[in-house]
Amino acid sequence: xxxxxxxxxxxxxxxxxxxxxxxxxxxxxxxxxxxxxxxxxxxxxxxxxxxxxxxxxxxxxxxxxxxxxxxxxxxxxxxxxxxxxxxxxxxxxxxxxxxxxxxxxxxxxxxxxxxxxxxxxxxxxxxxxxxxxxxxxxxxxxxxxxxxxxxxxxxxxxxxxxxxxxxxxxxxxxxxxxxxxxxxxxxxxxxxxxxxxxxxxxxxxxxxxxxxxxxxxxxxxxxxxxxxxxxxxxxxxxxxxxxxxxxxxxxxxxxxxxxxxxxxxxxxxxxxxxxxxxxxxxxxxxxxxxxxxxxxxxxx
Length: 300
Ligand code: FAD
Hints:
46% of the residues lie in helices and 14% in strands. It contains eleven helices and eight strands.
């Protein structure tokens, strides 16, 4: 699409909708960084902001605390992530009820990774929810809460085939999920090929692309290895030699992400979920490129 075509598309009254993902902070300094990011991104009026969830009591508490603070101090709609790892159904149900009582109306429901980390064999907790689909059903039984789930354009590493993966997505939709958010990917063709297969399977819910702006290439490559996402050679080449040059790295990261999201827009995508890594700058710039502008009344 020509630049003029793009400009008029964005001027149409921005049909672009975004959501932002954050992780709960571990230290006071990280808490400050997170809130700087939330404060900067809030005026872009995201549909929701999601907060990830980890195994273990302390990370769970941090998720709760972050979600509660978002509810108390901003007009943002929080989506609390929740996993089945290391907890009985009764324990997970107590978390669902606590979220509902706190005013949470959206949960991102996940199986989670095995306690031994990615690569270890996953075994459901004795008496726990078995997988993402089982958890979605549990949430829907307990509360009137919107549920989003994960989707994997390059297949989940535990999944034998893409078809098995899509079967799991279908089961999650049958259980009541109304949105899927994808693992990040760098080649848009992978997303569209996956989407074709999902639609061919009769799954009609939105499958929102998860976008990871590459703040740190080495770290992103590590995430990708664990998540079963591929890192194309052209991407590695773009960051090559910039290890000690953060300023140029940031410009390249913005260019790479801009290229990716603008291509997705050209191909009909209007919804984006950004893995912010609790940093606002790159995401803010990409949203600006997408035509989003601050709405003063929505400010945190
Ligand atoms: P499911 O949808 O239940 O399963 C994923 C796939 O694995 C299925 O398609 C299925 O084919 C296959 N599979 C599952 N179990 C088995 C099995 N026992 N044997 C064979 N195949 C199997 N993790 C966190 O800890 N906290 C978070 O907050 C978090 N947020 C996330 C948000 C998004 C948008 C995404 C994409 C991922 C997130 N994750 C998070 C990572 C996620 O927990 C892991 O990828 C986990 O390994 C799978 O969880 P799931 O809900 O996707 O699993």
